[in-house]
Design goal:
mainly alpha; single chain; 2 strands; two-stranded antiparallel ribbon
Amino acid sequence: MKFKIRTNLVTGILMALFSGYMLYVMPKQVKIPAYDSGAPSPRIIPGICLVVILICSIVLIIQSLVFKKEKIVVFDWTNEKPAILLIALLCVYVFLIIKIGFILASAIIFVIVLYYEGERKPFIYIFTIALAVGIYFLFSQVFHVSLPAGPFFGG
């Protein structure tokens, strides 16, 4: 399945929607301090960045529709499927970290990724799981940063 993407128009629309939505929700998410300390508001830098993104998005849309400056990319599903599948697996990984913890999520997802990429040596699987356990304990015991433990490791 192949289809053409007008990059300036699609990117302009997507980023305009994103920045508009973020500008809408930012007052609800980033509160202004109760006491005025004279420091700039915590909304100032994100707000400036979002306005710049919105302006650039509008410029891209104008370039595409008015000036007809456009780069057209052909999206071929057969070429892009492996990368999209890996991105989907990483999204599942983030969900699993929250539900079952860092160690189990890492063991499950990275074993699937290794198998999908064609790795068949058992040592690599064992090393990957041991590395996940090592990273968990490095963060929790040395750096004192808590990663989601999951139901089997005290979570």
